[in-house]
Design goal:
By secondary structure, this protein is an alpha/beta fold. 40% of the residues lie in helices and 11% in strands. It has 2 domains: 33-253, Class I glutamine amidotransferase (GATase) domain (Rossmann fold), CATH 3.40.50.880; 267-369, Homeodomain-like (Arc Repressor Mutant, subunit A). A hairpin with a 2-residue loop joins strand 10 (204-207) and strand 11. It starts with 32 loop residues before the first helix and ends in a 17-residue tail after the last helix.
Length: 386
């Protein structure tokens, strides 16, 4: 495939009053006089790319609004905050299938600027996340499929947010390409679109001008990724800092609570799964498991893989990593003790394995997902000190 590559990451305007694109009627923030001056945008400071955000009925409003605010802010908000000339990098417009208002999952109505058929030029297309009814959305938004094919053939970049990757897959655009989606939809889409190289561990993938992102708020990640791609790292970093959001994350596996195995009817293997779930923190060998199942080791491995979709060793690792995440989320045990409690003695090996599964070290995972201590006196900056 030409220019094929893969990269894995992890109703308000979002602009202060008085800045370009900010809503009217809001009081401007108090700033030093030199910073409050209005500076007109620089015309011709760089190519302004056309972005079309496609709104879907019963979708997630934030996956449309978030990208709009990121692209509107690129080259604008940071400059305005520093009293510099603004340099808009993107022109953003919204479209729905028929040009009519769409309702979101939260009952927020979004009014687009046009129908998709009215778009005459676009460089980037963002398809907002749909709901979870895969077949229902394909049926209701069937007109989107050929439209996406047309614009991709014309050279547009297309980014599908979360569940919207199903539209790219249904269009056949992702066949043979790397893609991601929300971890909760991964198995369904993998079964429905087996030609796609699904990699739900990633937050963002890019392959042949097709981008997918792995969750509702990954819409920010993929938008910043595109800002960095077309405008450079410095503009992307400034955009992220001015919006107070992080630069694109690398993986979503740290957020997933995946079922260990698909449903199956192999009773002996189901019994082995239960045994492993109760004894994962001890010595678990293939010979022991095969003997309990009444099979030869070779036959056991084949049957286990056919029933669960995992090799026994990978299944055991997943059990241990799941337990480690729970210990890190809900307790304060030292990392060595966490390592021992899940069946490993080599802490360095555990750290490497944990990072491979989650994209984070155990310490980083605890900092992000662990319980916070909100005892009285901690929030000194918020005048809560006792």
């Amino acid at each position: 495939m030409a220019e094929k590559r893969s990269a894995g990451l992890s109703s308000a305007s979002g602009l202060p009053a008085g800045s370009p694109g900010a809503p009217r009627g809001c009081a401007p923030p108090v700033k030093p006089a030199a910073s409050r001056r209005r500076v007109p945008p620089v015309i011709g400071a760089g190519p302004v790319l056309e972005v079309t955000v496609v709104l879907l009925q019963d979708g997630y409003a934030s996956t449309a609004i978030g990208p709009m605010e990121v692209f509107h802010s690129a080259g604008v908000l940071w400059n305005w905050l520093h009293g510099e000339q603004t340099q808009p990098r993107f022109n953003v417009r919204t479209a729905s299938i028929d040009g009519g208002m769409v309702n979101s999952t939260s009952s927020l109505g979004l009014v687009p600027q046009s129908a998709i058929k009215d778009i005459r030029h676009t460089d980037i297309i963002i398809v907002a996340a749909s709901g979870w009814d895969v077949q229902g959305h394909i049926t209701r938004e069937s007109a989107l499929i050929p439209w996406l094919r047309k614009w991709h053939a014309r050279g547009a970049y297309i980014a599908a947010i979360c569940s919207a990757s199903l539209f790219l897959a249904e269009a056949g655009l992702l066949d043979g390409c790397q893609a991601t989606t929300h971890w909760g939809l991964a198995d369904l889409l993998r079964e429905r679109y087996p030609k796609v190289l699904w990699n739900p561990d990633q937050f963002v993938t890019e392959d042949s001008r097709l981008l997918c992102s792995g969750g509702v708020y990954a819409s920010i990640d993929v938008s910043l990724y595109l800002v960095e791609k077309f405008c450079g790292h410095e503009v992307a970093l400034q955009t992220a800092k001015s919006l107070l959001v992080s630069m694109p994350r690398s993986r979503q596996s740290g957020y997933a609570v995946l079922p260990l195995a698909r449903q199956h009817t192999d009773t002996p293997i189901r019994g082995i799964e239960e045994y492993m779930q109760q004894h994962f923190d001890g010595e678990v060998s293939i010979d022991t498991l095969a003997e309990r199942a009444g099979m030869s080791p070779r036959n056991f491995i084949r049957r286990f893989k056919a029933a669960t979709g995992h090799l026994p060793g990978a299944y055991l690792q997943t059990l241990r990593m799941t337990s480690a995440k729970e210990l890190l989320e809900h307790g304060s045990l030292p990392i060595q003790r966490v390592c021992s409690k899940i069946g490993y003695e080599d802490a360095a090996f555990f750290r490497r394995l944990f990072k491979r599964h989650t994209g984070m070290t155990p310490v980083e995972y605890r900092e992000r997902f662990g319980r916070r201590n909100f005892e009285r006196g901690e929030l000194v900056g918020g005048n809560v000190a006792g």
